[in-house]
Amino acid sequence: MVLNNIEQLLEKYDNGETTLQEEQQLKDYFSQETVAPHLEMYRPMFAYFSKSSKEQFTKQVPLKTKSVIHYKWLSVAAVGVLMFGFFFNSFLNETDDYTETEKALAYQQVKESLHFVSKQFNKGTEKVGYLEAINTAGIQVDYLKEFNHPLRRVFNN
Amino acid sequence: MTQSDFLTIVTPFKDKVFRLAKRLLVSTEEAEDATQEILMKLWKNKKTIKNYNNVEAFSMTMTKNFCYDKLKSKHAQNLKIVHNNYEDTQVALQKQLEVSDSLEWVGKIMNTLPEQQKLIVQLRDIEQYEFKEIAKMLDMNETAIRVNLSRARKTIREQLTSTHNYGIK
Fold first, then answer.
1. Range of the domain at A118
2. Of A52, B5, B36, B59, which sees the most CB atoms within 10 A?
3. Does the keyword DNA-binding apply (chain B) (predicted)?
């Protein structure tokens, strides 16, 4: 290739005006064994560019496929677990391991304690019995209402 | 979308994502982590991926933003590992060594560029995207990209010239 041409291209190249084809021409020229001595400094530049473009990414990238959770089936499973739970619950209730005497004893104890509570309750109500006196007094005070009648009569006139 | 569908979409540009991340984050391990993160994000959003008309450009923008965030948090940590502030004083004897040495130099010079210029050189000179695509990825107009690219290329050339002539002139 004519040296003149190369020099022109280089000038364009330095100004950032070359096309990719022209840059390829330059690369080809500078990959030769012999280059014009005054252009020697361009050689490592182009050699570096072509060398760098050959570097490769070799690391393996783990690509995980994310398993999609099916909520529909999740709910089905949940219902299953719930029903299983209920079934076992009732099953256990049927076979409680208390004997008849123990049951009777427990019943007796509950009865006694409730009886005691009611006795105390009654005692309480007896003591509050005198409050009825207030009621009778209230009835007696009713005649005070008679005051209203004369007052009304006065206002009406 | 199955894994293989996803891989056919992602494979053409996953190296580009990695290289872009490496350009910005410098360390290979960090770039690998970043790439993995980006791919996982894409995988997570695989349902919406079909709606993007250009997954590649979208991923590159994502990578850029992700790396910027990473860099920001790193600056905030007040911890900075500088990879490019040592000089190799040994004189390379063989031509082969010299070449690989100057290749390294280009990398070092690129690391000193401002982040935006780094990005643009990476996308244009290494990944060979059209200006239109780069404009979309970086959300800039084409003129600004050309200006930045020109500045970066000139910086690289000038620095290379001075190292190239080191000891000669």
1. 98-157
2. B59
3. yes
Chain B within 8 Å of A44 (Cβ-Cβ)?
yes
Q: Is A31 on the interface with B (CB under 8 A)?
A: no
Q: How high is the pLDDT of residue B92? A: 44
- Look up residue B33 and give its amino acid: D
Counted domains in chain A: 2
Chain B residue numbers touching A57 (CB-CB < 8 A):
14-15, 17-18, 32, 35
Task: Please indicate if any CB of chain B lies within 8 Å of the CB of A55.
Answer: yes
Q: How far is B146 from chain A (nearest CA, A)?
A: 5
Cβ-in-10-Å burial (0-12, 13-18, 19+) of A134 comes to exposed
The residue among B104, B35, B103 whose CA lies nearest residue B67 is B35
Q: If you average pLDDT over residues B151-157, what whole number do you get?
A: 90
Element (H, E) at B47: none
- Show the domains of chain B with their CATH numbers: 1-81 (1.10.1740.10), 86-169 (1.10.10.10)
Residue A17 domain-assigned?
A: yes
CB contact under 8 A, B102 and A42: no
Strands (DSSP E) contained in B10-160 are none
Q: Which residue of A has its CA nearest to B101?
A: A44
Which of A61-70, B53-62, B80-89, B160-169 holds the top average pLDDT?
B53-62
